[in-house]
Amino acid sequence: MTDEKVVLDRDDMRRTLVRIAHEIVEKNPAQQLAIVGIHRRGAVLAARLHALVSELLDVDPPLGDIDIAFYRDDLATRPSAPVVHASHVDFPLDGLTVVIVDDVLYTGRTVRSAIDAIFDYGRPARVQLAVLADRGHRELPIRPDYVGKNLPTAREERVNVRVEELDDVDEVTISEASTATQEVTTT
Ligand SMILES: O=P(O)(O)OC[C@H]1O[C@H](OP(=O)(O)OP(=O)(O)O)[C@H](O)[C@@H]1O
Ligand SMILES: O=c1cc[nH]c(=O)[nH]1
C-alpha cells in the first residue's frame, strides 16, 4: 500500500514555476542569464522554466543540463557504477548568472556537485539556485534563491517530484516513513 500525500498538484506546479520564472526575471538582467538543470527531473523543470522566462524576456537565455554523477562526494564508496546521462552546456557561461535548477533540495550535496560541474565549463559571474521543493536537512551551507515550496519533513520521509515528461503525471508528494525506501539508497 502506498501512503503518499500530494502537496503540489499539476496546477500548483504550473503556478509555482510561473512565480519562480517571474522572480528570476526580476532579479537578473536578461542578457546575463543562463539556466542549467540537473538530471533528470531538474533538467525537465529547467526546460519549463526556460520556456516561461523566455516568454517574459525579449531574449532566449541559454539552456543547459548537467549530470552530476561523477562529481558526487560519495562516488568512490558507492556500491555500483553510477548511471550517467550526457550533459549539454553548449554555450560559454563565463560572466553569466547561471541559475541551477533541481527538483528537490535536501542535504545540498547534489547542488554542491552541480556547482563543481558547472565550473568545469567556465567561470560564471554568479550561480543561483532554484528548486521546486526544499525539504530541509541541509548538510552543507547551501541555500536556494528561488523555492517553489518549503516542505518540513522528517528524515525518514521522502519527497517525490513527478513530471509528465518522465512520469506521466505532474505532482509532488511526501511518502511516509513506511514507504520511503528510496532514501536509504539515494543519499
Ligand atoms: O540535496 P540532496 O541530498 O543531494 O538531494 C537532492 C537530490 O536528490 C534527488 O535525486 P536522487 O539522488 O534521489 O535521485 P533521483 O533524481 O533519481 O530521485 C533529487 O533529484 C535531488 O537531485
Ligand atoms: O526526499 C528526497 C530526498 C532526496 N531526493 C528526493 O528526490 N527526495
From TrEMBL:
Residues 18-152 form the Phosphoribosyltransferase domain. GO terms for molecular function: uracil phosphoribosyltransferase activity. Signal peptide: none annotated. Also displays a weak uracil phosphoribosyltransferase activity which is not physiologically significant. The lineage of its organism: Bacteria, Bacillati, Actinomycetota, Thermoleophilia, Solirubrobacterales. Belongs to the purine/pyrimidine phosphoribosyltransferase family. PyrR subfamily. Its EC number is 2.4.2.9. It comes from the Bacteria. Keywords: Glycosyltransferase, Transcription, Transcription regulation, Transferase. This is Bifunctional protein PyrR. One of its GO terms (biological process) is regulation of DNA-templated transcription. SUPFAM superfamilies: PRTase-like. PANTHER family: BIFUNCTIONAL PROTEIN PYRR. A motif (PRPP-binding) lies at residues 98-110. The gene is pyrR. HAMAP family: PyrR. It catalyses: UMP + diphosphate = 5-phospho-alpha-D-ribose 1-diphosphate + uracil.
